[in-house]
Design a protein that fits this description.
Layout lengths: L10 E6 L1 H4 L7 H11 L4 E7 L3 H14 L2 E5 L10 H9 L3 E3 L1 H14 L12 E3 L3 E3 L8 E6 L2 E6 L3 H18 L9 E7 L3 H11 L10 E7 L2 E7 L5 H18 L3 E3 L5 H12 L3 E5 L5 H6 L13 E2 L3 H8 L3 H7 L4 H15 L3 E7 L14 E10 L2 E10 L5 H25 L1
Parallel strand pairs: 1-2, 1-3, 3-8, 13-14, 13-15
Antiparallel strand pairs: 4-5, 6-7, 7-8, 9-11, 9-12, 10-11, 15-16, 16-17
Helix pairs in contact: 3-4, 9-14
Length: about 425
């Protein structure tokens, strides 16, 4: 079998910074770059994080110059003395640093545009290893660069994600393609699931066959985050046979997990919900207690949502639930705020006041204190109001979220609330 040269390229990612090694910041660049490489049909083989030490970085580059075909570096291109990527790459390549006249003119113009004086330290940002190709920075003041060490292509990108991401997409990816190191997007299918755990998913997939084997075609990749499973099926190549296998596996996947799939295009539950609400013209509102407006905030990220979402209510205290939503004081006294009776009254009150077709209420015990034997930390009740063609229903459901950490409980509650609204909207559309 003939192998595409790009498919056998070895990619490594090198993330630099004392703050990363010391745990003061989390490296988000490497995971993002890894996903981008996979989108190009490439798979990185190594992720490495190092401090701002020239000797450490140089040693790593010399090792990778033997082991890797492409190395992507992020960080260390700023104006301060601990930004040493340029010196490290130059040392590994056995060359000096030189000022780039074009980069200097661009940097001077950038500071003039910002109406700021350029400190002399910024001149470090226009020094590059001799022979390097300068990569423009659309969002910042530190250009990147590309050069070769031995047979290895080395790309140095800035650390701030808002600068690094456009540089990769607009400069690095085209260079990789021109060098024959990009396969382009492989055929794939994506599924986003809710209301099923990773362990349950794994058990069902295992019963279905060897879907998760490393040599499977298509390859199945799964990630879990706050109650959502993201599943990607990727063909091994572009042959007709692989494409047909992918299409069949996608059909099998829908048959097995159809009840849990909320989207095949949109990973963000709020955006999937927003698209459904806007398409159906369903007016929505929320009445939130323990989530503090988090569900409404997630929904307002959706462009155009104002067509169906006008207002919501944050009623944290019992008094607010009574005065703002009309929840009877007798219900609050008898059943407590975290109860089926109260969340149903909250949903009804919110819907009546907002004139909404759909309303979601939420009340729970986020912790760390406040839990009891009958109402432990992590218990959250949800109420759902739905009006359709003159028929009104009010229902409720409770969840006990694990790992009773306040932030985790609230995050899980927001995600669950969005999913409940999405499922309700879809059920209404079927009627």
């Amino acid at each position: 079998m003939q192998v595409d040269p790009a498919s056998s390229c070895h990619f490594s990612l090198l993330s630099l910074g004392d703050e990363l090694v010391q745990g003061k910041k989390t490296d988000t660049n490497s995971p993002w770059l890894a996903r981008e490489l996979v989108e190009l049909g490439l798979e990185p083989e190594e992720l490495c994080t190092l401090d701002d030490g020239v000797s450490h970085i140089c040693a790593a580059l010399l090792r990778l110059a033997v082991a890797a075909d492409v190395v992507l570096i992020t960080g260390g291109l700023g104006p301060t003395l601990d930004d040493v990527t340029r010196e490290s790459v130059a040392a590994a390549a056995g060359v000096g640093l030189a000022e780039d006249a074009g980069a200097l003119a661009w940097l001077t113009g950038r500071f003039q545009e910002m109406g700021r004086d350029m400190a002399p330290s910024n001149l470090r940002q226009v020094l590059f290893p001799e022979g390097a190709r300068v990569l423009p920075n659309e969002k910042g003041t530190a250009p990147g660069f590309h050069m070769t060490i031995g047979d290895t292509e080395v790309f140095a990108l800035p650390g701030p994600p808002r600068e690094m991401k456009p540089m990769f997409r607009n400069s690095v990816a085209p260079i990789l393609e021109s060098l024959g190191k990009s396969l382009g997007l492989l055929p794939r299918a994506r599924f986003y699931l809710h209301s099923t755990s990773e362990s349950v998913f794994a058990e069902q997939v295992h019963r279905a066959g060897e879907w998760m084997a490393r040599d499977a075609n298509p390859l199945v990749a799964v990630t879990a985050s706050h109650g959502v499973l993201s599943v990607q099926l990727t063909a091994r190549d572009r042959t007709k046979a692989s494409t047909q296998k992918l299409e069949q596996r996608a059909r099998d996947f829908r048959a097995l997990f159809g009840d849990f799939i909320y989207s095949e295009a949109e990973s963000r539950p709020a955006f999937a919900l927003g698209a459904n609400l806007i398409a159906a013209g369903l007016k929505v509102t929320m009445a939130e207690s323990c989530t503090g407006g988090g569900i409404a905030a997630a929904l307002t990220d959706v462009p155009g949502i104002s067509a169906v979402f006008e207002r919501s209510y944050v009623t944290y205290s019992n008094a607010a639930k009574h005065s703002e939503l009309g929840v009877p004081e007798s219900l609050l006294e008898t059943h407590g705020a975290v109860s089926q009776e109260v969340v149903e009254a909250m949903a009804l009150g919110a819907a009546e006041r907002a004139g909404a077709d759909l309303a979601l209420s939420v009340s729970g015990i986020a912790g760390p204190g406040g839990g009891t034997d009958t109402k432990p930390v992590g218990l959250v009740w949800f109420g759902v109001y739905a009006a359709h063609r003159g028929e009104v229903s009010v229902s409720s459901v409770s969840h006990r979220f694990p790992n009773a950490d306040r932030t985790q409980v609230r995050t899980w509650a927001v995600r669950t609330g969005l999913m409940l609204l999405l499922q309700t909207a879809r059920d209404l559309a079927k009627k």
